[in-house]
Specification:
This protein has 361 residues and is α/β, with parallel strands linked by helices. Helix content is 31%, strand content 23%. The protein contains nine helices and 15 strands. Strands 14-13-12-11-7-10-9-8-15 form a nine-stranded mixed beta sheet. β11 and β12 form a beta hairpin. α7 crosses α9. 48% of the residues are buried. The site of NADPH dihydro-nicotinamide-adenine-dinucleotide phosphate has 22 residues, from α1.
């Protein structure tokens, strides 16, 4: 069994019969798909923008920001023409810029829907960061507007394109671990004070929305199933101003139709951050720690480190979306995937509030 992956292989290309064969761009194909980055914050400027140089079919062609000084700084750094630098006030002009195919929205989650709707109505494909939006109806609004405009919608689930995580999925789905008897996933860190991440109006929720979504999404992609029921509790430390508006620690269980129970945690007050998952099967145990970082992953089965070639997951993800736009295929992390996580997160919140299990449709 191969244990390395080319950068083009993707989550659902492994063990998923329903996926069309992955046809590749040819070297002599048309010019790269043009992307505009909207929101020049930490993730955009430290992870995403530096990754365009590793893309084969994707090019950074425009910037959109609320801060003109950032447009000058990053515009100059990335060689973006002055005419392709927009503010939120002037961005309607992207309609007339044929270089821009995709708008990548990298702003606080509650702002994703309006920016996405705007971009789609301006004739652009939309790529939204996670969490997709605060509510299922927000997600639906994004899906509907893209559908109406015949535009594609992707969500920034970079782990779906990261080679170690792909290898873990292969181990889970191929029988290498045997029948899976338990999956746990823990993600959290110690958040600073005064960030938008602790304001519900911008973040949509607390740790579960921002970092617990990695635990949730991993439980789904490792199990290969969709939960039918969730049970959750939320714990907030008293007298901590970070948790007046949003939740701190979430402890949740997902009951899958197979009978498998996945257990996840999420936290914003953990002095020692956690970024890990563990899959126990009847034939082997996979431990990933760190599991979903930007780099430096360690994945082992029964204590033996897996030989996986690291890839630039950001570039692989963007190229995969570009390819779908050019070839008309279905992106592996579409709006529906983002909406599924939000639906489950809302059920997690309901269960924690009621103290009862919540069944999912
Ligand atoms: P930052 O606060 O660093 O940047 C957010 C940027 O959004 C700001 O710099 C600003 O850009 C723009 N913005 C637009 N409207 C607002 C507003 N009302 N309040 C604040 N900022 C606004 O956040 P991050 O970069 O860490 O996160 C941005 C998004 O990326 C979030 O959805 C987050 O969950 C996601 N993310 C994803 C990661 C991943 O691994 N997939 C990792 C980290 C974040 P400008 O000044 O240019 O207008």
């Amino acid at each position: 069994m191969a244990n390395t992956f080319s950068r083009r292989e993707t989550l659902f290309g492994i063990g998923a019969a329903a996926v069309a064969p992955y046809a590749f761009f040819r070297r002599d194909d048309a010019k790269p798909v043009g992307w505009a980055v909207l929101g020049l914050g930490s993730y955009a400027t430290n992870q995403i923008m530096p990754s365009f140089k590793d893309c084969e079919h994707t090019k950074l062609v425009a910037l959109i920001s609320g801060h003109p000084d950032k447009l000058v700084r990053y515009g100059d750094q990335y060689g973006i023409a002055a005419a392709s630098r927009y503010t939120y006030d002037t961005m309607d002009a992207i309609r007339d810029n044929p270089e821009i195919d995709v708008v990548y929205v990298i702003t606080p989650p509650a702002t994703h829907p309006d920016f996405s709707v705007r971009a789609a109505n301006l004739g652009k494909h939309v790529f939204s960061e996670k969490p997709m939006a605060p509510t299922v109806s927000d997600c639906q609004r994004m899906i509907d507007v893209c559908r109406k405009n015949h535009r594609s919608l992707g969500v920034g689930y970079r782990c779906h394109f990261e080679n170690h995580n792909l290898r873990a999925i292969q181990a889970c789905r191929s029988g290498e671990l045997g029948k899976i008897t338990s999956i746990t996933s823990d993600h959290g860190f110690n958040i600073g004070h005064g960030q938008w991440r602790t304001e519900k109006a911008l973040a949509g929720g607390g740790s579960m929305m921002d970092i617990g979504i990695y635990s949730l999404n991993a439980l789904r992609y490792l199990s290969g199933g969709e939960p039918k029921e969730v049970v959750a509790t939320i714990t907030n430390p008293p007298d901590d101003d970070r948790f007046k508006d949003v939740e701190d620690t979430v402890d949740f269980s997902l009951v899958f139709p197979s009978g498998l129970v996945g257990h996840g945690t999420s936290g914003y007050s953990w002095q020692q951050g956690k970024n890990q998952y563990k899959v126990v099967g009847e034939k082997g145990t996979l431990v990933a720690n760190p599991a979903t970082y930007y780099e430096g992953h360690h994945f082992a089965i029964d204590g033996k480190e897996l030989a996986v070639t690291a890839n630039n997951q950001f570039a692989t993800m963007m190229d995969a979306f570009s390819k779908c736009i050019r070839e008309g295929g279905k992106f592996q992390a579409p709006g529906e995937e983002g909406r599924t996580d939000i639906r489950i997160i809302q059920a997690i919140y309901s269960s924690a509030a009621s103290g009862k299990p919540v069944r999912l449709a």
